[in-house]
């Protein structure tokens, strides 16, 4: 039934007033907010925002980690018919200027002193920003700016307003329509200014409910909300589906306590981008390298069995009795304790999205009994387009279209989508809206792929990134950089990779080492190093990475389509790719054009056959200062393999 987010919240408060709605860990203790308490808080905040001057159709900036009171702010704004605009809390102040001015934002709610400082810093560039409220007062005692007020003061103002206008909140909620704008999410802006994606209550709730029906979600689910609220994936799982299903959303104490909080909560429904699953696997591998020889032997023996048997058991396939017994023993000794260590022992459904996940990484989790599945969607589609049914999860597809979704593959290979979850528009950008939305209602995803014989969608890469080799032994062969990069990132020693090869005779790559994993590896070999730059350029580290690259090449040689994408030369970068340096988006997607321009001299050195190349790179530190790092980077060759089958 068509509805709005505030109405969903009120329904839960009426039907299940004492059930937990939100939890937050403070000072090591979990604090619970019931649906009735949440309703009271939302009413106070809505009245306060109205008294401050927020009106229907206006935008409200929200910046911070996942916090119950910030979730309540979103609901309060939507109750008034205003449109919340969440932005990434780790962005620097300058990144807020365009969204604030583009959306003509006058009111902002932020979490803490760090975000307050950013807002105050950009007042000169955003003169219309006239009121800032903060959630956590720590460090703000001596701030005397008249535009700065606490959420506690806003709630007090709201109680006074409610006393004068007792029916105001309910009248505002009743006036809202499902087709009204409910939220605006800014894209990462990989090719220019970010675009504001406007979604309605209908588009977000429709997709949230479709996803809930697909996986039979109930109010009994437990979710840990630890990803940026500005990412629509987090918003769907920890806001839209939370209100659609009524389950409990738990906010960790801080980013540094997520792994501990994950184990304490034991979520039943879990969502993370591939980079989180990569980090979890890296932590496991580091621990096993430090284990005794006997434990390492047992782990490796059990994991060989898991890779052979685990996915089949997860998919309900026939597995011999002896193998089942062996797996049950492995589950007792290794897989069960490992799931518990990861905090995923109670997970019933786990999803990964945001970018493609490496097939080896995907298979690892399913092999140890975690029901990890892939989904396909984007900010513009309200996430849920394709989901993988239980027992049909495959590493090379992203599932089947779910209720309310139509998919068409254009002659160019681009995926087109039609559903009730499509964006309303790009804010103040009709030209960009017209580029992606056809008059018939089809959305251009920009992804290249096809529907396989089982009805599953297979994504090759971003359509604009898929290329072809020119010249050499694989002239004309397809080159899909993300596919190659994901295979590299399966190794715990590789944190990030960028592959090049379009319109070239061969493929080359940049590699970022995982400093923790490689540092641990170096220490166990008594290999001293002074920092990231020094460690990255050690000959021993290059041999370690070469081994990873050559294993990827051997695997690619068996792929009849992508055998030409084997990496011939590579280098290890002297610094980590960073969003603050314009090399990654806030969701850690590679900005290919920016990297190709910034490191053009390194690409040239790779393809000209040089053995090393000096480079000096500007960097931005966390405190806002700028500087530079330089190094003479080694360039290494990697063995390539004759294709097992002729490349197409």
Describe the 3D structure:
The protein is an alpha/beta fold and 648 residues long. Among the domains are: 5-272, ANL, N-terminal domain (Rossmann fold, 3-Layer(aba) Sandwich), CATH 3.40.50; 467-637, GMP Synthetase, Chain A, domain 3, CATH 3.30.300.30. It has 21 helices and 29 strands. Strand 27 (612-620) and strand 28 form a beta hairpin. The radius of gyration is 25 Å and the shape is globular. The chain starts with a helix and ends in an 11-residue tail after the last strand. The mean pLDDT is 93.
Set down the secondary structure blueprint.
Elements: H1 5-15, E1 20-26, E2 29-34, H2 35-52, E3 59-63, H3 68-79, E4 83-87, H4 94-102, E5 107-110, H5 113-121, E6 131-134, E7 148-150, H6 151-164, H7 168-175, E8 181-186, E9 196-200, H8 201-215, E10 222-224, H9 232-245, E11 248-251, H10 258-265, E12 269-272, H11 274-289, H12 293-314, H13 321-342, E13 349-352, H14 359-367, E14 372-376, E15 386-387, E16 400-401, E17 405-409, E18 414-419, E19 425-426, H15 430-436, E20 443-451, E21 457-462, E22 467-468, E23 478-479, H16 481-489, E24 494-500, E25 507-513, H17 515-523, H18 532-536, H19 539-556, E26 567-572, H20 592-598, H21 600-607, E27 612-620, E28 626-634, E29 636-637
Parallel strand pairs: 1-11, 3-4, 3-5, 5-6, 6-7, 10-11, 12-13, 13-14, 25-26
Antiparallel strand pairs: 1-2, 8-9, 9-19, 14-15, 15-16, 17-18, 18-20, 20-21, 22-23, 24-25, 26-29, 27-28
């Amino acid at each position: 039934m068509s509805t709005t987010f505030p109405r969903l919240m009120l329904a839960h408060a009426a039907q299940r007033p004492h059930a937990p709605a939100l939890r937050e860990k403070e000072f090591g203790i979990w604090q619970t907010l019931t649906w009735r308490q949440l309703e009271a808080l939302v009413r106070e905040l809505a009245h306060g925002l109205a008294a401050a001057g927020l009106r229907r159709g206006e935008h409200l900036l929200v910046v911070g980690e996942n916090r119950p009171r910030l979730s309540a702010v979103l609901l309060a704004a939507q109750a008034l018919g205003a449109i919340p605009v969440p932005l990434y809390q780790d962005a620097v102040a300058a990144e807020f200027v365009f969204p604030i001015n583009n959306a003509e934002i006058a009111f902002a709610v932020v979490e803490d002193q760090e975000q307050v400082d950013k807002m105050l810093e950009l007042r000169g560039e955003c003169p219309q920003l006239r009121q800032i409220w903060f959630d956590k007062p720590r460090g703000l005692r001596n701030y005397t700016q008249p535009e700065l007020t606490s959420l506690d003061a806003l709630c007090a103002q709201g109680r006074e307003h409610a006393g004068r206008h007792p029916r105001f909140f309910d009248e505002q909620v009743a006036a809202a329509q499902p087709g009204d704008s409910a939220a605006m999410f800014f894209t990462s802006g990989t090719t220019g200014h970010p675009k504001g994606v406007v979604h309605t209550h209908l588009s977000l709730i429709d997709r949230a409910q479709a996803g809930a029906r697909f996986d039979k979600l109930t109010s009994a689910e437990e979710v840990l909300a630890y990803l940026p609220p500005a990412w629509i994936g987090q918003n769907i799982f920890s806001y839209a589906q939370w209100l659609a299903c009524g389950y409990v959303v738990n906010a960790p104490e801080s980013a540094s306590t997520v792994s501990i909080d994950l184990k304490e909560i034991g979520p039943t429904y879990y969502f993370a981008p591939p980079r989180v699953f990569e980090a979890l696997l890296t932590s496991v591998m580091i621990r096993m390298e430090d284990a005794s020889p006997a434990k390492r032997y047992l782990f490796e023996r059990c994991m060989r069995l898991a890779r052979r048997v685990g996915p089949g058991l997860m998919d309900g396939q026939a597995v011999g009795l002896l193998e089942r017994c062996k797996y049950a023993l492995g589950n007792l000794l290794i897989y069960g304790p490992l799931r518990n260590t990861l905090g995923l022992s109670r997970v019933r459904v786990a999803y990964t999205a945001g970018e493609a996940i490496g097939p080896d990484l995907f298979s690892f989790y399913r092999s140890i009994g975690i029901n990890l599945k892939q989904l396909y969607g984007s900010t513009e589609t309200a996430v849920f387009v394709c989901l993988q049914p239980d027992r049909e999860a495959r590493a090379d597809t992203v599932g089947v279209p779910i209720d309310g979704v139509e998919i068409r593959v254009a002659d160019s290979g681009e995926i087109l989508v039609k559903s009730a979850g499509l964006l309303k528009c790009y804010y103040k950008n009709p030209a960009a809206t017209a580029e992606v939305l056809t008059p018939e209602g089809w959305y251009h995803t920009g992804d290249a792929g096809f529907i396989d014989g089982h009805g599953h969608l297979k994504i090759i890469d971003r359509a604009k990134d898929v290329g072809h080799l020119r010249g050499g032994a694989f002239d004309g062969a397809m080159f899909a950089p993300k596919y190659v990069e994901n295979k590299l990132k399966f190794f715990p020693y590789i944190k990030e990779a960028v592959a090049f090869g379009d319109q070239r005779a061969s493929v080359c790559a940049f590699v970022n080492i995982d400093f923790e994993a490689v540092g641990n590896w170096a220490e166990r070999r008594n290999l001293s190093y002074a920092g990231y730059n020094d460690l990255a350029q050690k000959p021993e580290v290059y041999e370690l990475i070469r081994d990873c690259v050559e294993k990827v090449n051997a695997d690619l040689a068996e792929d009849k389509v992508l055998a030409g994408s084997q990496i011939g030369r590579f280098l290890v970068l002297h610094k980590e790719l960073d969003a603050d340096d314009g090399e990654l988006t806030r969701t850690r997607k590679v900005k290919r054009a920016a990297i190709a321009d910034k490191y053009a001299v390194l690409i040239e050195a790779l393809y000209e056959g040089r053995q090393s190349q000096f480079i000096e790179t500007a960097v931005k530190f966390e405190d806002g200062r700028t500087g530079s790092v330089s190094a003479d980077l080694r360039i290494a060759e990697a063995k390539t393999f004759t294709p097992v089958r002729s490349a197409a």
